[in-house]
Amino acid sequence: SRSHGTSYPSKRARTEPSFRQTPQLCKAGPSGAAPFPRRRSAPGAGRRGCGMAPDMEPLFQAWSYFRRRKFAQCSALCSRLLERAPGEQAAWSLKTRALTEMVYVDEIEVDQEGIAEMLLDENAVAQVARPGTSLKVPGTSQGGGPSPAVRPVTQSGRPITGFVRPSTQSGRPSTMEQAIKTPRTAHTARPITSASGSYPRLGTATMLTNPDGPFINMSRLNLAKYAHKPKLAKALFEYIFHHENDIKNALDLAALATEHAQFKDWWWKVQIGKCYYRLGLYREAEKQFKSALKQQDMIDTILYLAKVYLRLDQPVTALNLFKQGLDRFPGEVALLCGIARIHEEMNNISSAAEYYKDVLKQDNTHVEAIACIGSNHFYSDQPEIALRFYRRLLQMGVYNCQLFNNLGLCCFYAQQYDMTLTSFERALSLAENEEETADVWYNLGHVAVGIGDLNLAYQCFQLTLVNNNNHAEAYNNLAVLEMRKGHIEQARALLQTASSLAPHMYEPHFNFATLSEKIGDLQRSYTAAQKSEEAFPGHVDTQQLLKQLREHFAML
């Protein structure tokens, strides 16, 4: 199958080194859509209606701020009300909700595994999983997915997706060294931990929103008293869970409240399940979510329960759950998207594409579905069709570096050369951090190799490393260019760096094996070829090299 990288290395004989075969499409992020223009009103019109009149009752004005998502102003006004009347429950509840909304993160979409969760996980997982039943053990897909020669893979062995999601941000490392080195968040140099990324650290959100100290003193809070007041209890729970990130006290409050409701309130059971999930008690969370579903059929509860099954590495159970949910909620976009994500992570790309198309039948502006279908067409050697999907995103108002990078690649491989460099220039101007800039320069290097300008390619790959010193693909391709110049030692050093940064890639191992075999270092060549075969068992050139080396060792 023809790859989307440089064309000539794949046509060469076994002894020639191979470039990193695939340019990497950037993942379309969930942000970037242009806001809708607001209609301007006549001077003085609508002031009383929006709560800005000076004689408006303060509590209604605070409620108006809350409705318009001006949470800081709402909180400040509620604070002034509470100074005058400390026992005002309405102001207290409104301020609690405003502070919660400032730091609120949808728990359904948050699925970051930290180092502790990955390496200190006490849940037993079968090491030899049956094909198509595990997400954590690579190489168990049922087929239908592209090979690593066509589509780049993550260190967990799954192909990269077309859309940034929390579960695709980091792989699943097998050693502590890889865990510390590879999973990075987008805006920090630290590895992902349980409290970084989307979860605020304990107490830090309080200090951000209340410079004078915490609004509620958790140590002096009488949870049993609030549990008997359902309306206050729900606002207080969300404040403790999202704002304070104090899962233990939140669980205690939810347990007391559900007991007061005689275990008939499904909402409290869902909250208890969320607390258990955060604490790593997945089986207890499963029981709570199932009990809540028996009382009230809700889409959110189905999504929470599916998260539990995915964390327990039971994707087939999660798929069955989603399909049962579709029987009760036909055409629900969230459920269809969940099925598509699982198929994509299990390397069943064709099934994932079909479900993403079903998503677009229900919601034709779904950014994730459009981006993933476009990415699938690009890696299936259909850049013209992929170009239509990315152009659709541009028409919808998505305007970011990743989109223009992907447009540039599609234009190049669709032979629309007049738009290629323009798109890459726009992508460079829109890059928000050095990692994005590095990816654009890396793909520009691929374009340069494609047109035969190796000097430009060399400069582009070097600029990639200037912006991101851990870009393994750039190290590999620079090594190939150094080999062509006859600089053997520099090439070996670059390939060793690429192998240590990305042990899941087969190209650095194969190139190092080829180079070592040329200079007579057969032992190192054999070791590197074995690593290449482990990363990509179907690579024919690696198998031929191993066969030749074994015949040579047999002669000795």
Automatic annotation (TrEMBL):
Record's protein name: TTC8 protein
Organism lineage string: Eukaryota, Metazoa, Chordata, Craniata, Vertebrata
UniProt entry keywords in alphabetical sequence: TPR repeat
Gene it is expressed from: Ttc8
PROSITE patterns: TPR
Annotated GO biological process: non-motile cilium assembly
Listed InterPro entries: BBS8 (IPR028796), TPR-like_helical_dom_sf (IPR011990), TPR_rpt (IPR019734)
One cellular-component annotation, GO: BBSome
Region (Disordered): 1-51, 135-196
Pfam family name, one: TPR_8
TPR repeat placement: 401-434, 438-471, 472-505
Record's compositionally biased regions (Polar residues): 166-177
